[in-house]
Amino acid sequence: MYRPILIVPFAGSGSDCVAAKELGISFLAFENDPEYVEICKKRLSMDESPKEFTHLNKKKEKQRVALLPKKLQTARMLTTVPSLIKWTGSKRSQAGLIADLMPTYNRYFDPFLGGGALLYIAAVPGSVAGDLYEPLISLWNLIQMEPDKVIKDYKNKWTDLNKELDAIDTNKIKKGESIPKIFYVVRKHFNETHDPLDLNFLMRTCVNGIVRFNNNGEFNNSFHLSRRGMTPEHFKKVVESWHTVIQRVEFVCQDYDETLARAEKDDFVYLDPPYAGNKQRYIENLDLERFFDTLEKLNQRGVKWALSFDGKRGKKDLTHNVPESLYKRQLYLTSGNSAVNKVLNGSIEQVAESLYLNY
Ligand SMILES: C[S@@+](CC[C@H](N)C(=O)[O-])C[C@H]1O[C@@H](n2cnc3c(N)ncnc32)[C@H](O)[C@@H]1O
After folding, report:
1. How large a percentage of the chain has pLDDT more than 90?
2. In degrees rounded to 5, what are phi and psi of residue 132?
3. In Å, how far are 54, 195, 205, 280, 339 from 224, measured between CA atoms?
4. Whose CA is nearest to atom 16 of ligand 1?
5. Residue 37's pLDDT band (boundaries 50, 70, 90)?
6. 275 CA distance to ligand 1 middle (Å)
7. N or C end of the chain: which has fewer CB within 10 A?
């Protein structure tokens, strides 16, 4: 009896190979860039555990998966992005699905980078990733250029935190009667200096990993009482895998329009802007007129894009009327429960987000 073999003629960073491995499918992969061969090997040697997904619009979902070879329908959806930068609005749980829908492209552009979930799968040499928030871009640059510094700093802070936690009565910690001081020392330092290494530690140890700022732009989330933070050993692995994948990506701290001015025909852009009208979670509210104008300009230049934008939260329909002339398809992707809402209002709601495609 013959066993099927999956042929991957252009392996790139190896997402198809990783998915085939997870499904136990034999594969034969080809890649002519030695750096990418190394990335593939590294990813294949790592333990990438599958993630579940659900999809609200069953009819459209059927149409979409029908486009893919049968085995890969499941395989691609299972691609897991290691949790590096914990960012509000992260698309980690949807990245595999969005990646399924990407066209072939020359360069990848991510002008609202945040935690860059899709970048892990989509990055190719020459890609451009931008965000307005300077400490975040500084952290990305460190992960690319000086990963050991990031790993060492986290290890030092994590060790201090855990020493403090070991010395405090667990019940007192749970009740909030005794709180480790290091978290608040680092938070104060970050608000004074904007040190990206402090931001990294705060993201990993704050309540539900939610990056939240007050009106003065100060990080104001508290320590997550029942957690000790990712172990330094695990964090090292995560940083190293990302470090390899983002080697030839350009990180820029600038407005999205400036980043997108460089996108050309045959480039692919993934847009994940702060939602319109949502001032609470992001550093800038989105000017819709300017944003739609940018999409129109990309269309005129023949640049393909995918946009995560509005959606549904619990019973609320937050769909925002993206002009129909701008896109060709709209899908709904579920992103689980809203952690932000849980922290702000104490309630859990199902969240589904729209994905608009102009191809
Ligand atoms: C929804 S988040 C992106 C999340 C990301 N896709 C992920 O998976 O983590 C939106 C990002 O856009 C950034 N941003 C807000 N206004 C911007 C602007 N005018 N230009 C560039 N980036 C902006 C915010 O700092 C934030 O990091």
Report:
1. 51
2. -75, -20
3. 28, 21, 6, 20, 13
4. 284
5. confident
6. 10
7. N
For 235-262, what is the mean pLDDT? 96
- CB count within 10 Å of CB 137 equals 19
- In the chain, the domains with their CATH numbers are 1-48 (no CATH), 49-132+254-357 (3.40.50.150), 140-238 (1.10.1020.10)
- Does the pLDDT of residue 342 top 60, yes or no? no
Q: Measured from the CB, is residue 37 less than 6 Å from ligand 1?
A: no
Q: How far apart are the CA of 114 and the centre of ligand 1, in A? A: 5
Highest mean predicted confidence (pLDDT) among 110-124, 271-285, 331-345: 110-124
Ligand 1 nearest-atom number relative to CA 131: 22
Structure tokens at 348: 């859990």
Residue partners of 321: CB distance under 8 A and separation at least 6 = none
Please give the Cα distance from 257 to 260 (Å, whole number): 5
Residue 63 has a pLDDT of 40
Stretch 149-174: mean pLDDT: 90
β-partners of residue 285 are none
Q: Is the CB of 275 under 6 A from ligand 1?
A: no
- Measured CA to CA in angstroms, residue 188 lies from 4, 202, 218 at distances of 57, 11, 9
Give distance in angstroms: CA of 266 to centre of ligand 1.
Answer: 23
- Ligand 1 pocket check for 309: Cβ under 6 Å: no
Residue with tokens 């997904």: 53
Residue owning the nearest CA to atom 26 of ligand 1: 114
- Our mutation pick for probing the ligand 1 site, out of 94, 132, 289, counting the most ligand atoms within 8 A of Cβ, is 132
Single-letter code of the amino acid located at 177:
E
Full-model pTM:
0.76
